[in-house]
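Incident log, support desk, overnight shift.

02:14 A customer reports that sequence design results differ from what the structure should imply. Their input is reproduced verbatim below. On-call engineer (initials T.W.) acknowledged and began investigating.
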């Protein structure tokens, strides 16, 4: 029987709304003459619908139709019009309807396409996962999960630090659920009433008062008051651990250590037996608590669970710099693993900066690293004598000489064009001559450059010489002779004469007679006049740089009181160039200064800091702290910590990490490197007493160990005598509290205590409520 659709004249708008509107009200079948079945579409009711709703339905249908058409075109290569397609004019046009089979093919194809997409979960999920009742196996690694089920009444700040810094692979998750304070207030009132009733009954019965019950009442009252005032909030807290190991045996060992660490703080844990998968899912970063083992906590004890309270700076290689003041961990680091091995040390006088650097030198010497020091105050002589180093006094009265015109040898394996070495040396000498002669006019600078080229030419060294280091270099006297013979350079020659035959003669106009053939070489410039000191430091640095460029070797160069070089533009530029190029030759440069302002006044001060990957800031003065705060982006807490730090305490920066540091040394190290005059005198007195001469009638007096002084009982109690410098005692001594030299047994350093207070976990009264 044929079907025919009949629509009233006013039903055009209703038809344009799409198939969704037609399906909304069932069609009304009416029999007509001729055996035809007429389908009448109601028009009046549909026309009453809001226009906005009609537009929304139309748009949605058009989108669906377009998606289906595009997908069919990709799948079958031919475009087929869907049930309703919207024309550009916005009027509906009825098209071909998808058959059920075609619709199924389209949906299957879409599902197949979606299944082929890789999600983030596909990328990070393990290849295999095996769950047992007491552990899991994830891609060859064994894992076991724990949950905390009981906390002590009192929680210390930083109690989680030993767990966070535990040197194992471990995931820790914390779930915090806020609780409505009004509901907790009702429970607390009921608890308080119960406690008061119990105490009253005990008194009526004549029983001895129960301290635990009275304490619980006080805690509940205090918590209720704080909640009422808004000082505290109430939470439910869950903490879970998942520990990983590559074997079951190692996993059991690690879990025992973890239980011991937490048990020592009265924090009780249990393995999640038969719930390992739920516990594992609760510790992976999807924020899903499938284990749901929680305990009540208020704000104060909950704040002690914050895990990110200190940074750790330790490695398997390197030397010991001291203790982490936040967690008492060892700060062990190798500066040569950074982008560059340069460091800067800033501290006020007496804060322990020389002590810290000498301790670093001593420990790097044990690692086979050569160290060169420029010592302005003879502070490194005891260290040099103790380790058998070379201590060279540079002064007008000394026989030590350095020729600033020396040429370096080309580094083995380094391709250098002829003239590169000579050109580099001439540029350095130009800076030296400006430092020696003062400011130069452009004409004088040009004449000086020509004179330097000519003076090397007199020795057979030119820009075309392949290896100029095999020739004998000129001296300052040769330069004076060349300048004297040049027209217009007479005044410069007169100024140079002061260093050849004048007041400063003999220091820089003789061939070099020193060598860097020792593990520790110290250049002392204390006896130099103030006018000569910057010049001498420039010459010494130039000599050291030539030697460093000639042989690749792991070295440290320490420049104490570097601020004196920053006072002159040319010496500051030379120091910056040395710091910038040191990494290429396996050299680490340490610059030390107490005058931060003078150091940073130079335009090269901040670039030197930027090119130093390691920084040590010890106790600072109020005037310097604001400058350092801007340069190092210090927080207010770090700023006040540096102002109030003791001797040997400060901030240690290594790359992007930094920690609060307490410098420690063994007793023997302290005896070698201390600069405290009182301790030095006590040490000498102790040495004289321990090695006093004994008269002998048969032979000359020979030094022997003196008998111990009274009281003998105390000597027996300590059982040891103060060790000499050669002793191997390794008892740690902090830079702040060094033992007196006459102490028989060096006391160990007390661990640095955290001054932050803990909090009462009074919320545990409501466990299970």
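02:41 Re-run completed on a clean worker. Output:
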């Amino acid at each position: 029987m044929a079907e025919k659709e009949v629509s009233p004249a006013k039903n055009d708008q209703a038809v344009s709304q799409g198939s969704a509107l037609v399906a909304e009200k069932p069609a009304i079948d009416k029999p007509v003459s001729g055996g035809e079945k007429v389908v009448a579409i109601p028009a009046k009711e549909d026309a009453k619908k809001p226009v906005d709703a009609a537009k929304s339905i139309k748009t949605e249908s058009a989108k669906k139709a377009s998606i289906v058409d595009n997908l069919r075109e990709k799948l079958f290569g031919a475009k087929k019009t869907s049930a309703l397609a919207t024309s550009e004019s916005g009027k509906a046009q009825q098209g071909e309807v998808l058959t059920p089979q075609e619709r199924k093919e389209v949906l299957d194809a879409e599902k197949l396409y979606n299944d082929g997409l890789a999600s983030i979960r596909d990328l990070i999920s393990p290849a295999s996962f095996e769950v047992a009742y007491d552990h899991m196996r994830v891609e060859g690694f064994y894992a076991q999960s724990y949950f905390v089920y009981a906390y002590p009444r009192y929680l210390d700040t930083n109690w989680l630090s030993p767990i966070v810094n535990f040197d194992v692979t471990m995931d820790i998750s914390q779930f915090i659920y806020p609780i409505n304070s009004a509901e907790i207030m009702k429970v607390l009132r009921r608890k308080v009433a119960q406690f008061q009733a119990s105490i009253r009954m005990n008194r009526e019965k004549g029983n001895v008062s129960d301290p635990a019950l009275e304490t619980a009442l006080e805690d509940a009252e205090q918590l209720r008051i704080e909640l009422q005032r808004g000082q505290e909030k109430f939470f439910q807290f869950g903490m879970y651990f998942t520990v990983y190991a590559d074997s079951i045996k190692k996993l059991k060992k690690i879990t025992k250590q973890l239980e011991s660490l937490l048990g020592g703080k009265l924090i009780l844990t249990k393995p999640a037996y038969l719930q390992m998968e739920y516990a594992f899912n609760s510790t992976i970063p999807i924020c899903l608590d499938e284990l749901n083992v929680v305990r009540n906590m208020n704000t104060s004890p909950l704040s002690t669970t914050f895990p990110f309270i200190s940074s750790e700076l330790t490695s398997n290689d390197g030397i010991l710099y001291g203790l982490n003041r936040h967690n008492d961990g060892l700060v062990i680091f190798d500066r040569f693993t950074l982008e560059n091995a340069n460091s800067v040390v800033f501290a006020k006088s007496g804060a322990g900066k020389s002590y810290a650097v000498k301790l670093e030198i001593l420990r790097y010497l044990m690692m086979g690293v050569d160290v060169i020091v420029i010592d302005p105050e003879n502070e490194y002589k005891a260290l040099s004598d103790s380790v058998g180093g070379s201590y060279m006094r540079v002064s007008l009265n000394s026989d030590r000489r350095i020729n600033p015109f020396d040429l370096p040898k080309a580094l083995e394996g380094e391709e250098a064009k002829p003239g590169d070495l000579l050109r580099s040396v001439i540029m350095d000498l130009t800076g030296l001559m400006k430092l020696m002669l003062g400011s130069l006019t452009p004409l004088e600078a040009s004449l000086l450059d020509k004179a330097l080229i000519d003076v090397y030419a007199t020795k057979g060294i030119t820009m075309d010489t392949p290896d100029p280091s095999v020739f004998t270099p000129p001296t300052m006297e040769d330069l004076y002779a060349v300048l004297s013979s040049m027209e217009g350079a007479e005044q410069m020659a007169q100024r140079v004469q002061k260093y050849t035959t004048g007041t400063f003669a003999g220091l820089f106009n003789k061939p070099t007679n020193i060598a860097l053939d020792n593990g520790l070489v110290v250049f002392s410039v204390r006896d130099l006049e103030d006018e000569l000191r910057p010049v001498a430091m420039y010459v010494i640095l130039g000599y050291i740089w030539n030697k460093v460029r000639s042989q690749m070797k792991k070295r440290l160069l320490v420049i104490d009181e570097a601020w004196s070089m920053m006072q002159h533009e040319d010496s500051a530029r030379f120091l910056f160039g040395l710091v910038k190029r040191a990494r290429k030759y396996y050299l680490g440069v340490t610059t030390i200064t107490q005058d931060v302002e003078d150091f940073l006044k130079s335009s090269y001060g901040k670039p030197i800091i930027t090119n130093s990957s390691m920084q040590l800031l010890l106790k600072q003065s109020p005037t310097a702290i604001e400058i350092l705060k801007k340069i190092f982006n210090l927080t207010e807490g770090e700023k006040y910590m540096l102002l109030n730090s003791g001797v040997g305490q400060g901030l240690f920066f290594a790359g992007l990490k930094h920690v609060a540091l307490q410098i420690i040394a063994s007793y023997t190290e302290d005896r070698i490197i201390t600069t405290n005059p009182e301790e030095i005198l006590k040490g000498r007195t102790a040495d004289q007493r321990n090695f006093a001469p004994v008269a002998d009638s048969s032979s000359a007096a020979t030094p022997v160990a003196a008998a111990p002084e009274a009281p003998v009982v105390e000597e027996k109690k300590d059982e040891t005598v103060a060790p000499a410098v050669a002793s191997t005692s390794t008892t740690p001594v902090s830079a702040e509290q060094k033992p007196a030299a006459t102490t028989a047994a060096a006391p160990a350093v007390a661990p640095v205590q955290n001054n932050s207070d803990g909090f009462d976990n009074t919320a545990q009264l409501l466990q299970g409520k």
